[in-house]
Amino acid sequence: MQQLVCVVQMNVDKLKKMAGAVRTGGKGSVRRKKKAVHKTTTTDDKRLQSTLKRVGVNTIPGIEEVNIFKDDVVIQFQNPKVQASIAANTWVVSGTPQTKKLQDLLPTIINQLGPDNLDNLRRLAEQFQKQMPGGEAGGASIGAAQDDDDDVPELVPGETFEEAAEEKKEPEAKKEAEPEEKKESSS
């Protein structure tokens, strides 16, 4: 039977580098120990809960959504746990937050916006107008020009309704007469 022998040759320089990285001091010093991962989140959470208990917060049931407005950003909590202590002026909203832009949530949260967000709404309206020059704003102006015939004409001082209506009918009559003349000349 044949015996298979594998010889692994490692680069001596690489081994020295790896061993040197483990030492914190110079030659002869103690090697560093494995760093322990600290779990501070559970202790912080327990400390927070004990402080809230001392303040006397009560859970408020039935809240489906919490929106916190900050500049153009909305921090949104879906089905959060809300606790409050009105005497201590303390409100706690816990849950998974989602950061969204105000314009993404705009149609649904417009009734939640207060007077302090009025400037944000104005800025958003200006942005929409700048973004869509040929979009809805342009389409509205074209539609207004077509519906102009149905509107009441504006009066100039000194004119009557009848005079303004006659002036408007005269250009329309000329436009209708022009195609008939072209048809007759082409035949």
From TrEMBL:
Lineage top rank: taxon: Eukaryota
Record keywords: Repeat included?
A: no
Instruction: Give the matching Gene3D superfamilies.
Output: Nascent polypeptide-associated complex domain
Q: Which residues cross the membrane?
A: none
List the residue ranges of the region (Disordered). Answer: 132-187
Residue ranges, compositional bias (Basic and acidic residues): 166-187
Quaternary data? Part of the nascent polypeptide-associated complex (NAC).
State the protein's name: Nascent polypeptide-associated complex subunit beta
Q: Which organism is it from?
A: Triticum aestivum
